[in-house]
Amino acid sequence: MKFLPEESSYMPGGTGPKRGPGGQVVALVLFLAASYLVAWLGAFSTMANVDGWYVDADKAPWSPPNWLFGPVWTFLYTAMAVAAWLVWRRGVPASRPALVTYGIQLFLNLLWTPTFFSLYPVMGTAALWLAFAIILALIVAVTFTVVRFGPISRLAGLLLLPYITWIVFASSLNLWAALNN
Question: Taking the model in full, what pTM does it have?
Fold first, then answer.
């Protein structure tokens, strides 16, 4: 596996100029906006239900306090966006499939929150099992994203490691909830 240097002065094929600083900033803002949009949409499901059924749910003994989730996810969504931007800015042929994989994991991330929080009052435990299946798919998708990002930008791959660690941890919380509610 060949790792490319972080700096690249040319577009794919080595024929184009650097992407301008204005374009770099706009792209970073767009990646951050997409990431924060997913967070914001997920927050609706969480806010509506974290003080509802989830208050009385049987939670894993290792569950962190609710206040910790916001800061952790803010960091993770920011790191995800920066990682995607680093891959985009390299502009190498492998960037496009890597960013498609990133988009897939972002979509799975978006699906998990309403499935876990909003569907439980409607579907009961089946919603928690469905959420568990989604989070397992998310772990696979993020793993593939790390594998695709790493050779393009080592830093991008490293920025996703806390995310994958957190979702593996979150999957243990989800599994406990599915088994005990």
Answer: 0.86
Tokens found for residue 75: 């960091």
Is 59 part of any domain? no
For residue 83, how many C-alpha atoms fall within 13 Å in the half-sphere facing its CB?
A: 31
Instruction: Answer whether residue 39 is part of any domain.
Output: yes
Q: Which of 105, 163, 101, 97 is nearest to 134 (CA)?
A: 105
Say how many domains are in the chain. 1
Distances (CA, A) of 141 to 4, 57, 135, 149: 22, 28, 10, 12
The model's pLDDT over 94-123, given as tens digits with 9 standing for 90+, comes to: 999 999 999 999 999 999 999 999 999 999
Whether 7 maps to a domain, the answer reads no
Distance between CA atoms of residues 133 and 135, nearest Å: 6
Domain CATH code at residue 153: 1.20.1260.100
DSSP string, 98-116: HHHHHHHHHHHHHHHHIII
The residue with tokens 């579907």 is 123
Q: Which domain holds residue 28?
A: 19-52+66-180
